[in-house]
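LAB NOTEBOOK - FOLDING QUEUE
OPERATOR: T.R.
BATCH SIZE: 2
PURPOSE: Compare the predicted structure-token outputs for two unrelated chains run back to back under identical settings.
PRIORITY: normal
REVIEWER: second-year student, initials M.K.

ITEM 1
FIELD SEQUENCE / FIELD STRUCTURE:
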Amino acid sequence: MKPQNDEEFEDLEDIEFLDLDKKTPHPSDIDEEDEDIVEEDYEEVPKRQKPRRQAPPSEHRPTAKKKKKRMPELHIILLIVILAILAIAVIRLMIWNKGTRLQIDTTEDTSEFDTEANDHIIPLNADDPNYVAPNADDELHILLLGNDVLVDGEDEGEGFADLIRQKTGATAIYNAAIPGSYVTCAQEEYSSSFRMDGLNLPTIAKYLNTGDDSVIRQASEDLGELFTDQMRSALEELKKIDKEKLDAICIFYDSRDFLGQRPPGDTSATEDVSITNYFGALNASLQMLQSTYPDARIIIMSPHFAHFVDENGKSYSSADESAKLGAPQFIYVNRQYFSALGNRVSFVDNFYGTIYEDIADKYLEDNIHLNTEGRKLLADRYLAALNRFGTYEFKPE
């Protein structure tokens, strides 16, 4: 704003004007005394202060901005996620471990689903299920090898062989079952200390393969009065077999090896042919029979369920794995199954699929021997396996 008169100039303080034409000395041109003067001059000159801005009235003061929230670090987020997953897993595990109460309808009939048979049924020629071996006649020829389960009921005409004959019309059935015999032998070589070894499955198979009956005759003599008419009749049946006509071989032994706790053998030893363990004795016998009768279809019938009775007359389940029983019965059934697979013969599972623990008492006369109804079930199971591929035309009597 321009002053209006001279009085306004008088009110102005004395102003020191700067001579712009005067050169400002360089610091190097100033001596110490002058330097002090310069410093004093600088000190005397007050610094120019910036005028402070007057804050606007509070009602017009702008609102302060909020600070931006800082995002959490990535590793913190990952840690939180991992901890959450672990917490959920622990909770679910605790719930699962606690379990829930199973509700069972005891009135429902579940007999159809109680067990599942582990059958393994194959034809004589696996490459051609319809293959029928050449035979000298149309008659069905069957060889039965086993023990008591194939002999019981014969006196009443209700034995296993009798039932097969009635259901098929076959007349050429050679029942060479020897009561009291085993699948295994106690020793590799025959000894009079174990006389039944001369009548057990490996010895019979060897005789059929080689024709040498010296061990059988020696065992018969060593048994003396224990050599029964049924044993003698079975050995006579072996001599009647016509190799060119034989259609099928049924191997059916009860649970005698299990009850006697004969060694079951090890299925990992696939080449085992030791006749002193269950698995090896089966392998050895099957291989000799296959060599002797290459055109005969072999079917192994597993033992049915049996009870174990100790020296005090106390009965145990054959599925019991306690030290009292040693190897449970299903171990022997398992060895039969793997022997059948390895030697490419058929296997019928009676332990789980025919007469199993839940229904065994209905078909057992004692802890091991079957009644007539039990034998009928087993005969039906054998014939179903024999004619699985429709090879034969049965003509029931």
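ITEM 2
FIELD SEQUENCE / FIELD STRUCTURE:
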Amino acid sequence: MHIQELLKDLSILSSTGPMDLEIQGLCIDSRKIQPGDAFICMKGGVFDSHSVALPLYQQGVRVFFCEREVPLPKDAAVIVLPEMRTSMSLLAQNFFEHPAKGMTLIGITGSKGKTTVAHMIYALLEGMGKTPGIIGTNGAWTGEHSFPISYTTPDPIELYRAIRGMRDKGCDSLVMEVSSFGMKYDRVSALRFDVGLFLNIEEGDHVGPLEHVDFEEYFSCKKSFLSLCDKTLIWSGEPKLCELQEGLQATYTYGRELFADYRLLQTNPVELGDEPGMGFTVEGKLNGEFKVHSLGEVGSLNALASLAAIDLLGWDAKKAAPALEKLHITGRMEWIYRSDDFGVLIDFAHNGLSARTLLRSLRQYKPKRLVCLFGVNGNRDINRREGMGKAAGQYADFSIITEGHTRNETFENILTGILKGMSQTHGRYVIIPERKNALEWALEQREPGDILAILGLGHEEHLEKEGRRIPHSDRQLVLNYLEKAEPSKDF
């Protein structure tokens, strides 16, 4: 692509060198540069990539987009742009030729539930005969075609590359999780969403040295997403509802509250074949009885949000609804083993709100014992530790505290925060630092009638320790253990 095409609709602060060059790609990681790429220089929290401009020039790079002037030989194009993160979104959009144009875009933000609701909407769209794509925590794909991404909301180059790949595969709609970091770093600022969903927000999450400065910044980033949406749908039980709705034109609500546009009337556990699910009744802008392959009232609320999004797009939500009964989401409230009197479920829950919601939902199934195995991640908001400990202590009959992604912290340091939360309850627990040992112990101690909830990793297949990714799968360890168990002991 010619530089001039790439710079369409961008402001340029200054430029030196030739402006008639062609580029083959965009790159922000100097370790991944390819011949013909233009390099985007930015000052980050740890590293300033302007410092590698000269070495990259020596490797053959000739086009540089920068935040400030960089001295390079005259045959290099050095183009200084304002607000580089915003500019990068526009560059990527231009390079991949506006791939989202003509697609229906649905965005979802919230402290918990983004992945679940995204998968629900994806299933509804497929059920309607659409060809949807999805981008989020579990990856990016359309149909059988997947695209590599590094984050829940990827950087603009990965994002637009994935959307372009989806468009080339015939994708006509896109469901996307929009994280607070995606907003903080302007990863989606060049997109316009037809419908945006705001599920909830929780204090004591995503605040820390490598995350948001404080809750106010976290909330502001979440709220700013709504300004990118033509229509918005917000949980009616959100304490900051009025603040979120300020300045919005076409805004709607869903939930239990009497004023909700899409009101959840009642819920009840049901069986969907041989799997547990939820039935729920809705009134308001949408009326009827529905079922979803999910757990608890939160499962019904998530399903309601998904149906409401379809309705706000002007499509037939009732016709699409049966797709929710066949829903399967890897690592989210996922039963990996069930028999007549024992069940094992894995979930990504990694803060107090999500753990509390899940464990309360499982109570509806009246287990003899609800056992919770969990760890909390290091180098993240320390309030999660107390929140997870308190949630497990309140809602589980017994807890097994183990490691999560300890990263560059010690397990003992993380444990201190967990026990602070646990001490506020009468919860019983055991501490087994190594996760593999904890899983095996939990299965050895199982009793008829138990539900074992394994929280924190969900679909992930590794543990992060001291800068390394160590292969680990909760699912595989459990299934391997139960496969070897003697039939008489295999409840």
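REVIEWER COMMENT (ITEM 2): The CA atoms of residues 108 and 197 lie 5 Å apart.
FOLLOW-UP: none requested
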